[in-house]
Amino acid sequence: MTTATASRYTAEYQTIASALPGQNLPWLQELRNDALKKFSEQGFPSPREEEWRYTNVSGIEKKLFSPQASLTAGDVDAERLKTCQLQDAWVVVLVNGHFSAELSVLDGLPENVSVMSMADALTTQPDTLERYLGLAANQAEHSFIAFNTAWFTDGLFVHVPAKQVLDRPIQLLHIVTGADTMATTRNVIIADEMAEARVIETFIARDGVYAAGLSGTGAAIARDGVYAADLSGTGAAAGTDNAYLTAAVTEVFVEQNAELTLYKMQSESDKAYHFGGCYIKQARDARFTHHNFAFGGLMARSDIHVDLDHASECELNGLYLGVKRQHIDNHTRINHLKPYAISRELYKGVLDDRARGVFQGRVIVAVDAQKTDSQMNNRNLLLSDDAEADTKPQLEIYADDVKCGHGVTVGQLDEKSIFYLQSRCIDEETARNMLTFAFANEMVDKIKIKGLHDMVLEQLLARFPQEGVNKEWL
Amino acid sequence: MLSIKDLTVNVNDKQILKGINLEIKAGEIHAIMGPNGSGKSTLSHVLSGKSGYTVTGGTATYQGKDLLEMAPEIRAREGVFLAFQYPVEIPGVSNVYLLKAALNSIRKHHGQSEVDAMDFLTLVKEKVRLLEMDEKFLYRAVNEGFSGGEKKRNEILQMAILEPKLCILDETDSGLDIDALKIVAEGVNSLRSPERSFVMVTHYQRLLDYIKPDKVHVLAHGRIVKSGGPELALELEEKGYSWVEDNQAAA
After folding, report:
1. What is the ipTM of this complex?
2. What is the pLDDT of residues A47-82, one digit of tens each?
3. Do A421 and B90 touch (CB under 8 A)?
4. In 3-state terms, what secondary structure has residue A381?
5. Which end of chain A is more exposed for a tag (fewer CB within 10 A), N or C?
6. A188 near A157, Cβ under 8 Å?
7. How many Å apart are CA A367 and CA B82, to the nearest integer?
8. For the domain B2-250, what is the CATH code?
9. So what's the pLDDT on residue A4?
């Protein structure tokens, strides 16, 4: 990235700076200024950086995505939102990077629990945010974090007090409706001692494949199914090909013996750029599970970086589906800082057409982190000769009494499994479709929230050939 | 039911089956025994249509049709069932899904409508009880994390539900303890009928204590070297496979 491009963004920044939340907070102004300076110097990350070697975001250079200073009403289709909104959940809706109180659902929230927009939280709980904001996401890490810190317009704030167990999940519904828009949001999630909560981040565009698929506008193209049909068909005219930029950073704090499950469903438009970084700090005995469903976007990058304290546990699951020319990058890092912590990681990718999937997974075991138990796996299924999977698992172990393993596969469908299904009366093409679906469905089946499970399943079915997968039988 | 004549099969240009002749009538149970490497599994694979085998000569006629011409799934829909020696694990596909897909493929093949959901469940649950399996099995992924015995039992469960005409059991008894073997044998015996035939490929005579065959064939070096009644199995157990192999060498 040239600094010239960075300076275009920086110049644009001045048009929005005075409208950003937290104007009256000197610590935040300082943080933002520092971040803006870093970004101006570095620009967006470049493939020359080791952690970005497979992903070239220079496409963002060619565009100058513009932030929206405030919420513009009227351009969100309520029906569209409903298809992605969970029942029995508290829902915070962010439209083009701004909280919409009207569309959000926060009734019946226990009094001592905070679920609100970041802008509101900066007004009502500035001290808490001064302590936590920037604590897990280090803006020296890479310039997307700095970019987010400087630009964020709003976000989600969740604070669950000690021993509080939330019976309903909290959903963040992040929707971008405008072309050439950028939505830069910052989320902070805190689960105090022994608290338990589930949070879902949903990233969607104005018109999704899900909604388009249901409406049946696409012409029937057997090979690529509904998804491809909508890209080339009438769906595109309705706005599925909006180019925009999402840059979201989520900081998560799971305090002693607390438990948090975070789901991310990324289903951006097919021309969108998505950066979503999630940075987690787990205290002693804390449990954290992350499920990352990376389905959309022309270019999408996720960071999931976890710091583990004594005897804490984390589980990272991921599923990335790439078709056409999608590029989907998943970058995970697990820092075992103290003894007895457990980490489990499984990322699966299905790549068709000319899609490219990236998995970079790093596990670092500090010299003090004896008795670490860590397992990392990445499995890729390539459905076309032109699809590509780049996988790079890394173990860095400085302690001497640990159990760490990793496994990686890149390949086609297993011929033995195909024959097994054929011997059970199923024709070869159906068998291939079933196995492709099953490969991905293993990750979908891990979702414990029924409404979300069904929603993600719809997304999966919309993207791959459906012949052979009978939804009624699942 | 099945008529095999002078069947020769190559794997990677090496001849494995060197002229097999076998006549199986409806309702009969045939045991094919033999030492490891004799070609037993090759025979069951070729009959079920697995790729990687080249038929270089001979015929296999199933119910008057050329079996070797049919795709594997067509053979299965026509009623040929292979119980695998090593059942494959399929994460992400539940047992009940596979059973429904298989059963409906058969029904479609015969011009019948899809099975009614309630009837299907009743049928499946009845068979699950027959094989002393837990109903939870049905909703688990096919063979994933199953013990060896559970996998073999699952094969017989599929067989019981799909009701094939020709059942090929490839070393179904290998790796089973006596309790699991009894359950599997009971499952097979309950399926015996005048319209259904069985080919049991096995290394061990013990299976035949529980499933009584009509005919026993000894396969060695790609040929059937001896055929007889159930008493042949006992004789084999007593004298060992070297007995037939020596006989063949002498001949």
Report:
1. 0.94
2. 888 899 999 988 887 788 988 888 876 667 778 888
3. yes
4. strand
5. C
6. yes
7. 54
8. 3.40.50.300
9. 63
pLDDT at A217: 30
Complete DSSP assignment for A102-161: TT-B-TT--TT-EEEEHHHHHHH-HHHHHHHTTTSS-TTT-HHHHHHHHH--B-EEEEE-
| Secondary structure in 3-state letters for A108-123 | CCCCCCEEEEHHHHHH
Q: Tell me: pLDDT of A2 over 80.
A: no
- Based on its alpha-carbon atoms, the radius of gyration of chain B, rounded to whole angstroms, reads 18
Smallest Cβ distance to A442: which of B92, B96, B101?
B92
**What's residue A473's pLDDT?**
67
Rounded Cα–Cα distance for residues B244 and B246 (Å): 5
DSSP B9: E
Residues B124 and B99: their CA atoms lie apart, in Å, by 9
Calpha distance A361→B46 (Å, rounded): 44
| Whole-angstrom distance, CA of residue B71 vs CA of residue B74 | 5
Nearest to A423 among B48, B94, B141 (CB): B48
The domain locations on chain B are 2-250
A467 interfacial to chain B (CB closer than 8 Å): no
Which residues are A301's β-sheet partners? A275, A329
Closest CA to A348 of A303, A394, A409: A409
Residue range B144-179, pLDDT digits in tens: 999 888 899 999 999 999 999 999 999 988 888 898
Question: pLDDT digits over B186-224, tens only?
Answer: 989 999 999 999 999 988 888 899 999 999 999 999 999
Cβ-count burial of A108 within 10 angstroms (0-12 exposed, 13-18 middle, 19+ buried)?
A: exposed
- Among candidates A257, A329, A262, which has minimal Cα distance to A286? A257
3-state secondary structure of B232: helix
CB-CB contact of A126 with A181 (8 Å)? no
Measure CB to CB from residue B77 to each of A421, A425, A435 and give the nearest one: A425
Mean pLDDT of all residues belonging to chain A: 89
At A208 the pLDDT is 62
* Chain A residues near residue B138 by CB distance under 8 angstroms: none
Write out chain B residues lying below 8 Å of A437, CB-based.
92
pLDDT of residue A415: 92
Per DSSP, the residues of A4-42 read HHHHHHHHHHHHHGGGSS-TT-HHHHHHHHHHHHHHHHH
Cβ atoms of A278 and A252 within 8 Å: the answer is yes
Choose the mutation target among B88, B157, B170 for the interface with A, i.e. most A CBs under 10 Å.
Answer: B88
CB A363 within 8 A of CB A378: no
Helix (H, G, I), strand (E, B) or coil at A359: strand
Distance CA A23, CA A16 (A): 12
Judged by a CB distance cut-off of 8 A, whether residue A440 touches chain B is: yes
How far apart CA A91 and CA B142 sit, in angstroms, is: 37
Q: Where are the domains of chain A?
A: 3-415, 416-474
* Single-letter code of the amino acid located at A121: A
A369: exposed, middle or buried (Cβ count in 10 Å: 0-12, 13-18, 19+):
buried
